[in-house]
Amino acid sequence: MLKAIVISGKGMINLKDIPALETKSGQVIFSPKYIGICGSDLHYLADGSVGQSVIREPFIPGHEISGVLDETVIVNGETIPAGTNITVHPATFGDKQDLLAERPEIWPNGRY
Predict the structure, then answer these.
(1) What value does the mean pLDDT take over residues 46-72?
(2) Model confidence pTM above 0.85
(3) Which numeric CATH code is attached to 2-106?
């Protein structure tokens, strides 16, 4: 079990036990070293929302994160050794748009 801070609604924050996740294809295991609490996290806690985005389910804040790889990985044919310092881009790109090929951060249906 791991410990995590969880925001579940306006003014609702708790320290909870959560199960360790299993890695899936394309994912890596790393040890977090620095985690930033973003202004959006603070708004979710204080207001229950940020703009039109409203908390619909509990979440763990701290998407601004860096750490150290726990395992050697191969990305696009390049070996990245365990112990390498990393930062995390906390998004999955959405549906590829050929006219926006160089701007995957704005493809429809992406998520943070």
Answers:
(1) 91
(2) no
(3) 3.90.180.10
